């Protein structure tokens, strides 16, 4: 999301809405293209949504598992990228280390899409903003993000301000977003960071949270549960936001930790709309990059 201009983001969001409204109009629009979908981490929504999106646009998707590739062990990321560029029109990668994406991007010219790294989760952010836009105009909206200032927070923050909204972020001390992302976001709009979840949620149009311990942080799970205990999104938090506020979560959710079951299943919850919008968002990204 750091590499996407506000103008391109709005174009992608418009494309996503158009594809969702009339999928048949775009069926096979990119026939004859081939893309790679590389997975170093487990995946459900990213894998299925990207695969289906490509197929419905007429693209041939190739799922590449790291067990077969050995990124960084069997071959360097740069060599993997240079080989795949000879076969593919676009490569999407879900990796642990953002540096692997950077190493490939430096030596290839094909479009490289971050499907998730430790720095960002931009395709998810496109789906998030699409979901908010279905509820109310994004321009002038405020999203409250409660929890870890992580990759999801980074991309959501940038997408929100580039689309005309604002963010209030509340994290436990020591878990704030990376300052470089805050500095970049501040060039486009308002982002406030604090440690009080109720203050962040007050008057918000959407309340967003994520798991307290992501993949690769399992050894920190017990410590994080203690640090994040007061950041659970429950009925109290949603009441402070207001009756029209929606609840958002990128999934998978640990019910009973970062969010209660009651909030997940409430009429304000849009989490499964978000999950569906991963499909339409990725179609829009492919059309923007290859169309």
Describe this structure in words.
- The protein contains 13 helices and nine strands.
- The protein has 291 residues and is of the alpha/beta class.
- The chain folds into two domains: 6-120 and 278-290, Rossmann fold (3-Layer(aba) Sandwich), CATH 3.40.50; 122-274, Aspartate/ornithine carbamoyltransferase (Rossmann fold).
- It has a five-stranded parallel sheet. A four-stranded parallel sheet has the order 2-1-3-4, with helices on both faces.
- The longest helix has 20 residues, at 271-290.
- The relative contact order is 0.15.
- The mean pLDDT is 97.
Notable characteristics:
five-stranded parallel beta sheet; alpha/beta; Rossmann fold; 13 helices; 2 domains; 291 residues; 9 strands
Question: What's the topology here?
Answer:
Elements: H1 6-21, E1 34-39, H2 45-56, E2 60-65, H3 66-69, H4 77-85, E3 90-94, H5 98-105, E4 112-116, H6 122-135, E5 142-146, H7 151-162, E6 166-170, H8 179-186, E7 191-194, H9 197-201, E8 206-209, H10 221-228, H11 235-241, E9 246-249, H12 261-264, H13 271-290
Parallel strand pairs: 1-2, 1-3, 3-4, 5-6, 5-8, 6-7, 8-9
Helix pairs in contact: 1-6, 1-13, 2-13, 4-5, 6-7, 6-13, 7-8
């Amino acid at each position: 999301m750091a590499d996407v201009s506000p103008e391109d983001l709005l174009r992608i969001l418009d494309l996503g809405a158009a594809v969702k409204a009339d999928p048949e109009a775009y069926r096979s629009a990119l026939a004859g293209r081939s893309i790679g979908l590389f997975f170093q981490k487990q995946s459900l929504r990213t894998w299925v949504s990207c695969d289906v999106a490509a197929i419905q646009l007429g693209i041939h998707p190739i799922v590449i598992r790291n067990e077969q590739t050995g990124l960084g062990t069997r071959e360097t990321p740069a060599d993997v990228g240079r080989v795949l560029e000879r076969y593919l029109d676009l490569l999407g990668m879900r990796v642990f280390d953002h540096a692997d994406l950077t190493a490939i991007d430096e030596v290839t010219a094909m479009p490289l899409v971050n499907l998730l790294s430790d720095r960002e989760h931009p395709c998810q952010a496109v789906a998030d903003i699409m979901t908010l836009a279905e509820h109310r105009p994004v321009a002038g909206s405020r999203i409250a993000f409660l929890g870890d200032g992580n990759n999801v927070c980074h991309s959501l923050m940038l997408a929100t301000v580039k689309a005309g909204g604002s963010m209030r972020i509340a994290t436990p001390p020591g878990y704030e977003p990376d300052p470089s992302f805050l500095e970049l976001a501040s060039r486009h709009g308002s982002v406030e960071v604090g440690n009080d979840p109720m203050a962040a949620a007050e008057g918000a149009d959407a309340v967003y949270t994520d798991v307290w311990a992501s993949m690769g942080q399992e050894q920190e799970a017990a410590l994080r549960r203690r640090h994040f205990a007061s950041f659970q999104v429950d009925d109290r938090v949603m009441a402070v936001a207001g009756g029209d506020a929606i609840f958002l979560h990128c999934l998978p959710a640990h019910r009973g930790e970062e969010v209660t079951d009651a909030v997940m299943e409430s009429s304000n919850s849009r989490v499964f709309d978000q999950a569906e919008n991963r499909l339409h968002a990725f179609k829009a990204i492919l059309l923007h990059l290859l169309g």
